[in-house]
Amino acid sequence: MPATIDYYFTVTSPWSYLGDARFRAIADRHGWQINHKPVDMGEVFAASGGLPLAKRPPQRVAYRMMELKRWRRRLDVPLTLEPAYFPAADKMARRLILAAKNDGLDAPRLGDLVHAFMRAVWVEEKNIADTATLAAIMGAVGLDSGHLLDRTDAADIVETELAYTEQAKRIGVFGAPTYVIDGELFWGQDRLDFVEEKVSAQAHG
Questions:
Q1: CATH for 4-203?
Q2: How far is CA 202 from CA 5, 32, 187, 198, in A?
Q3: How far apart are CA 109 and CA 106, in angstroms?
Q4: For residue 177, is the peptide bond before it cis, meaning its omega torsion is within 30 degrees of 0?
Q5: What are the domain boundaries of the chain?
Q6: What is the mean pLDDT of residues 82-100?
Q7: What is the pLDDT of residues 97-135, one digit of tens each?
Q8: Where are the beta strands (DSSP E) in the chain?
Q9: Distance CA 166, CA 162 (A)
Q10: CA atoms within 13 A on the CB side of 82
């Protein structure tokens, strides 16, 4: 079995979106598998002292915007700084990812779904709280949207959702994205160089 990186994220995090494609490329280069773990970041913030954007002081809000501009330019990726549907409720998208995962969708295709949801928020300015929008996104990546939508309230999905969020709090996750390798946390897409350094060393150690 390939070595695994646990990936704690939310599809409504611009930082998760900015790092997602590069993170997937790192895992592919070194033969690692990504274990996608979408979490309720509101619960994580509540446990770790974090604040949602609307409650942060203006200095932090202004600096966040500056950093988003810097990273958009540095990475040369499309990013809408203030998308029409942000913040959007991500509960349904999170549960759809978990439904696909629990139903056995392989990690690369699951990654395609995750990235499609992220792009919907940060590039296409779509409302991921809208069921029809979610169905269209899933159909575009070749998934049975009807089946997955029917699964969102299933006991195993709700239990997995709670388990991942509780696990994140227990191991010290406080923001998205967080990448975890053998118990070591790397917070933020700007730490992906360290992630690659870690997986490369282990792959060739």
A1: 3.40.30.10
A2: 12, 10, 19, 6
A3: 6
A4: yes
A5: 4-203
A6: 96
A7: 999 999 999 999 999 999 999 999 999 999 999 999 999
A8: 4-9, 33-38, 178-181, 184-187
A9: 6
A10: 6
